[in-house]
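HUMAN: Please help interpret these tokens:
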Amino acid sequence: MLVADKKDYRRGYKKHYQLYKRLREENSNVNSRRLLLVYSVECGLKYMLLDKWNEQNPKNILDSDDSRKKDILTSHNLDKILKELGQQGNFRFPQLATVHKNVVVAETYHQLYRYCIRTQEKQQDKEEKMEETLNNVACWIEEGM
């Protein structure tokens, strides 16, 4: 795992989220814009984790014996990170199903859009709900920065 510090996470959140909003306004590149949104939210949440833990450099956590914090910090599980930030249940992510019959949850959204995996028919409403929820999380992050 590459080490990113608090400033890196903040910058990643801001840059990815700004580009996501531009792509959304243009209604283009759905997979790419959703991937940017997922990563933006992950960066922002990790920034907020470090802020909560009063830590500028996550290397201190990664080198420590605190396996709980390490597990959360290295995770893609947005639900787990939100729980640590006291937001459990405030944001509900839908489960999606791929054409390959895989179940996609918040922890694996980045894979769905990184690989441009198609979802099963009639999943468009769920994908739109997922994007709306992620955007709501991004707005909550922005308020906290």
Observations:
- The two ends are 25 Å apart (CA to CA).
- The longest helix spans residues 30-52.
- Strands lie at 96-97, 103-104.
